[in-house]
Amino acid sequence: MKASDIREQTAEELETRLNDIKKNLFNLKFQKAIGQLEDTQAIRNLRKDIALVETLLREKELGLNTEIKPKRSRSAKKKATRTAAKKAALEKSKKTKDKSTDS
Fold it and tell me: CA-CA distance, 49 to 7, in Å (whole number)?
C-alpha cells in the first residue's frame, strides 16, 4: 500500500479502509493464536498499513500535505549528491590552482 495512492481518497473512504484493515488484523491475530497462520509477516504489514492510514487521516484533519509530490528515486538522489560533490571538487581544485599561480 502506497501513501500516494491513499492520499487521493476522502476521509470517509479512509475510515472504511481503516476499519477493514483492523478487522483483517484481528482475524490474523486469531489465526496466529490457534496456530493456523502461515504468513506472520502479514500482521506486521497490516500494522504498518493502519499507521499509514491513521497518519493520512490526521493530515487531512489538520489540512496538511494537500498536494501530491512526485517522489525522486534513489538513483536520482545519488546522482544529485554525486553532481554536488563533483562541483565542490572542481571549485576546490580551481582555488588551489589560483593560489599556486599567484605565488
Answer: 13
CA distance 103 to 100: 6
What pLDDT, in 10s, does the model give residues 37-74?
A: 999 899 999 999 999 999 999 998 898 866 655 666 66
| Three-state secondary structure string covering the chain | CCHHHHHCCCHHHHHHHHHHHHHHHHHHHHHHHHCCCCCCHHHHHHHHHHHHHHHHHHHHHHCCCCCCCCCCCHHHHHHHHHHHHHHHHHHHHHHHHHHHHHC
CATH number of the domain that residue 5 is part of? 1.10.287.310
The amino acid occupying position 31 is Q
87 and 41 co-located in one domain: no
4 and 44 inside one domain: yes
